[in-house]
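Methods: example folding runs. The two proteins below were folded one after another, and each record is reproduced exactly as written to the output file, sequence line first and structure-token line second.
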Amino acid sequence: MNALYPQQEFESDVAAIKGFAELLIGGYQNPLGVRGTVKLRVPERPEHSFVARLDAQLHIDWTDLDRATDTTVTVPIATLKRLFREFEVIDFRDPAIIGTMEFSGNLDLANHLAKCCLRPSTFTVDWFRAVGALHRAKGYRDLTEVPYLHRPTQRQILELIAESCPAVITGLEPSPPCKDWTLDRLAQHYSDAVVRVRSATQSQTMRDFVRELKDFMANPYDEMVEGFVKPYTEGAQLPQQMWDDFGPLFFDREDFIPPQLWLGAVPTHVPTSSLHRDPRCGFLLQVIGRKRLDLYSADQEDLLYPYKAYNNYQPCWYRPQAPDPEVFPKAQQAKCLSVTLNPGEMIVQPAGWFHQVHALDSPNMSVSYFWRY
């Protein structure tokens, strides 16, 4: 049993709400000095809602609930309890989760608190530790190039995974090939497929999402809020209607967890995915436009300031695109390995590699698959 595991069952709704507040406190970090207030409202028990004040420490106030706050998050008691039962695997992009919640105000503060209530499994903690030792032994910190393989065999791919060595695969593409896909073709083929759920009252079909992308390209803006007003699907589950065209290109479909869609028209001067690492081996297929991945070996964990609260992936506080040596002094020693993916190319990214992703062209589309084992 991981010492980080929270309590999972409660005698009453009130106990669960109080337990949730403690969960947030236990996972809270704030090296960037974010300030603000968030009201956590439980509609079935409004008198037991609370206000979280983000400062150097997280402060929970159970009184004066009518005060004005920067953000309000409404979470049904059933969803709150589910967070405890599934903290190892919960994904706030899941429509069954975010589709039950409501948000208003400063959404960055909501994102900050959401990540505080996650915890890694014992398997993930042990796996990251083992991969770090492997990368150190193989000297991956000093790797200068990512190898390319043209139409590799499944055995070659399994060997890459075993060695924890990233590689770019060429010669494997869906049918029709990636070069034939455009925003208009996506909107035509998958018009009613739901590609993003933002809250209990907001979801988007492919048709609506493509319209938003085109509006953004005509009138771009710089204000981005991860998971909310960023014109990017950010790894939402690939709609079932798209699986036949963009499902895994090798092994069996059952060997992967459900694919994720990364579609959008985000600016090219900021990362589409900030620095993080995954506990499963990932395969990223580039479909429209190009992407650059900046990779850091797992043995550089102490240089990149990863979150202590995480589950399916571990974000980092350090932002390579905006380094702050006063806040993150060790990061100056980190060594980066960069690779560009063109349409039709796929990168095999073994578990544990820290990475940040940049869209070099806009619009942009990728599909990712995570190895189940």
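Second run, written to the same file directly after the first:
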Amino acid sequence: MADAPDRLETGLPPEQEPSAAADGSERPQRIVVLRDFCLRAHGADCERCALACPHGAVSFAEAGAPVIDGDACTRCGICLGVCDAFSSTRVTMADLHARIRRIALRGERAVLTCKENVFPGLEPAANVVVLPCLACLSPEFWTLVLAEGIDVTIAADLSYCTDCVRAGEMGELLYAHAVETAEEWSGRSVGFSDVIPEKENLLRDLADPSGVDRRSAFSNLVGEVGDIASGKRRLRNSEVLQEFYERRERARALARLNLGNGTEFNDFVPEGLTKRTMQPKRQMLLEALERDPGIAARVPLVLSETDCALCTDTLSCAAVCPTGARRPDPADGTLAYDARYCIGCGLCVGACPEGAVELVETTAETLLPAEDETSL
């Protein structure tokens, strides 16, 4: 099991830090920075989060770590979509993916929309997921959902994006790019609708059956009452049952990936421990590839590569690697490399004294297991 990522300061003054209410109600959502996934915390000169933020709410401390201006931040979640180092305190990407999976397990279509499209009085149906902005989802997230064969649709009026105070035009630009990229990678499509499904209310429909005759409305009500009496409705809508199925399937998928997240004993490093950290977006991509290996050839990647003729195993590259893709082999201390963890940050290139490391353009086929591994 991977260690919990370290959190950096959010930039909120102490008086604005959320705390549990006296009645035990849910804390307000905020955005936090996770140290393990931040490249700047490891010495890289990355500014994607600041460039993407539509309100200039992200700046960098003297040590290089991102700091969030709590007054400027609108919690749009754009930073979540562009970088793994950002997370919501309320719902993680894993939580969101699990919810979409549970909707699919019920045999329903998953409908995604944003807060800007949900007006007062509108009660979205149970299969509708309301996001602060659709741009909070990365191409890898969409690719995984499509690779799993989930019927997913976006329900939104895009004309609202221009005047959206939460994310503005940047949100529309980034979310459209993420969806188009995922469709290209997966070879599948995301549906689109301008209508958000509403919560069913059979008693209301019986009283005012607009669009449906009274006999049909009454028949639906009788059928629903019968399901309730027999327990079928409870079974069909049981979140507990769906969560169980989702956890079991996810556990199987992760077991098949055989990821080595976390720390391991290693006599060839001063601290005696080495650590590998799987970036969430890379893990989603690996899960998508596990579902459909045919995607791999369409997914471009930049990874590090070592010229073995020049490498003298100084392990300078391993010392700066932020994910543990490069590390001393616990067996003999020579350089070990796992491309699945490599995110192409380039820190290893500058650290190698022999110039034995370079970044190369490749595809996700490099991340697929070797044939002898798949036959085990």
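Comment on the second run: The two ends are 23 Å apart (CA to CA).
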